[in-house]
Automatic annotation (TrEMBL), chain A:
A matching Pfam family: MacB_PCD
UniProt-recorded Gene Ontology molecular function terms: transmembrane transporter activity
Family: Belongs to the ABC-4 integral membrane protein family.
Membrane topology label: Multi-pass membrane protein
GO cellular component: plasma membrane
Residue span, ABC3 transporter permease C-terminal domain: 258-373
UniProt KW keywords: Cell membrane, Lipoprotein, Membrane, Transmembrane, Transmembrane helix
Protein name: ABC transporter involved in lipoprotein release, permease component
Annotated ranges, domain MacB-like periplasmic core: 28-222
Main location as per UniProt: membrane
Residue intervals passing through the bilayer: 28-49, 247-275, 308-333, 345-365
Organism: Haloferax elongans ATCC BAA-1513
Superkingdom field: Archaea
UniProtKB/TrEMBL annotation, chain B:
GO molecular function term, any single one: ATP binding
Matching InterPro entries: AAA+_ATPase, ABC_transporter-like_ATP-bd, ABC_transporter-like_CS, ABC_transpr_LolD-like, MacB-like_ATP-bd, P-loop_NTPase
Upper classification of the organism: Archaea, Methanobacteriati, Methanobacteriota, Stenosarchaea group, Halobacteria
Protein name (record): Antimicrobial peptide ABC transporter ATPase
Entry's transmembrane regions: none
Record's GO cellular component terms: membrane protein complex; plasma membrane
SMART domains assigned to the protein according to its UniProt record, in alphabetical order: AAA (SM00382)
Organism: Haloferax elongans ATCC BAA-1513
PANTHER family from the UniProt entry: ABC TRANSPORTER ABCH.1, IMPORT ATP-BINDING PROTEIN
Amino acid sequence: MNPLQELLRRVPALLMARRNLSRNRIRSGLAILGIIIGVLAIASLGMFGTTLRTGADQQLGDIGNEISISPNLQEGVEELTDRDVDEIRRAVSDGAVVPIRSDAVLVSRGDQQTVTTIYGMENPGAIYEASDGRVPDRLRQGALVGSGTAELLDIEPGNTIAVDGRTYRVSAVLAEQQGISLVNPNSAVVLPMEDVNGTGYSQVVVSAESGQAANESAVAIREELNEREERVTVFELQSITAGIDQFFGILNTFLIGIGSISLVVAGVSILNVMLMSTIERRQEIGVLRAVGVQRGDIIRMILAEAGLLGTAGGIVGALFALGAGVALNSFVLNDPMATFQPINFFYVALAVGFGIATSILSGLYPAWKAANERPVEALRK
Amino acid sequence: MSHIIELQNVWKRYDTGGEVVEALRDVDFHADPGEFVSVMGPSGSGKSTMLNVLGLLDTPTEGTVFLDDRDVTDLSDRQMTARRKEFIGFIFQSFHLIPTLSALENVEVPTLFGDDPAARDRATTLLERVGLGNRLDHRPDQLSGGQKQRVAIARALINEPRILLADEPTGNLDQETGRSVLDLFDEIRREDDVAIVAVTHDPQLSDYTDRTVELVDGRIQ
Ligand SMILES: Nc1ncnc2c1ncn2[C@@H]1O[C@H](COP(=O)(O)OP(=O)(O)O)[C@@H](O)[C@H]1O
Ligand SMILES: [Mg+2]
């Protein structure tokens, strides 16, 4: 005996239910189709929300992982000192600390020239990537050019430029930063720290591994540096990304709500199917009652039928939904595997659970009605 | 008392919108183990109503029902269902087999919702006994009328009842098939000591019965 037969023998309600459903395949099939559509709608709208969120996260990049510390000008602090940077390094347990010194100077290549912002950084690799060339871990010589400046002055890695009268070899052109950025390099030039005039720092950027680590660092830095006076202002972009996350959460709930409506319609169709099939089987149910089958067993049998319709529809709907997710993600994100993340499995499970629950709920009234019919009435011709 | 089932002063009234129909009037009846009783009478005389009261499918308006010397008149639906399962086997004129189940599964139906691992063996033995050992996996639409009634008889016997109640068991069968079903009844009541109460119009039934009860207008004659 195979396991399915074994299960059906153990749970007679299931055996009877399965046989009853196979009696009118078209009708059962249509009821299942309703559930498939409902489950597909909920699961794929949920996954659609995930795809939108993932797309938005890609646009935002790691910005939620970064914080920026700047001198509090209102308290008369003009710039951050080496001591401040040391204290920041001590406060940050996990993440790169990038002190920045900035200035505005004349940059030229050949006969073209422009005034741009220059940033002095020791470790620009912690926050920037190159679109062309290479960003060294420690910047000791050479210059990194922002994409806007590079375009304006027609610069490529290997070119020589003059910054404030000194000449530099260009190591890399930096990738264009889209959207919001704490230290936007697009129309700037990055130089070794000691080549920028001054002794203090205009800003310190901390790049952490996660949004949560960034937030913890921000708290620690405020405690450390602002203990006696408000020496620094700490700016977190996490609040923005949290707001965006919240927006997508609401959007998802809304989408799933729309999907649920189709499941309600499917539930009504199951109610109709079960009602019809119990009315047709009136006599049979009367015979079952006559030979000693209890009311509760009749209820279980009919609920098992509804549950089987829901389970079959749920499983097929889940498979379709995963297929739809793969199609959507390969189209929108160019990454079909993005479908297989925990939150999407949650949506699929949620949709299947809703589908089965809706079916069983819709079976309740027909089951109750069939079980409470008196067998004498059912057996009268 | 040795009566397995007994009705005392049983009345059954149906209130059909103003007019009250008295389907049973002061009926006293009993059957003993191993006894074969036929109930005869014109259409509408209350035969089916009496059988339903005997089978604990219906409750009398007045009077008392005893099953195995116990008063079962006012039991709950749950208790009545349990008693039906334990004591009573039903055989219907139109067989009432479940079309989606095989002969063997139909016989097992009364045992399905309960823990009864030996049921399959008993069902097989019973089908062999009624001459359908080679039809175990046939569905009802693959069986003749007489074969269906045999499956129904096997189903009625699966829980080893003390009483068989049959409403026109030969009504849908030709004479010869009817006779073979009656031979089977005779064998059952002798071998299993089962009381059989059969409602019928079939005159050949009197060849088999110990007693015949006449119902006219709800009264035993
Ligand atoms: N549920 C019911 N409601 C109203 N009248 C009924 C009901 N069941 C039976 N009767 C009436 O009771 C009488 C006896 O019916 P029944 O026992 O079926 O007779 P028989 O089986 O002898 O033909 C008939 O007059 C019938 O119309
Ligand atoms: Mg009748």
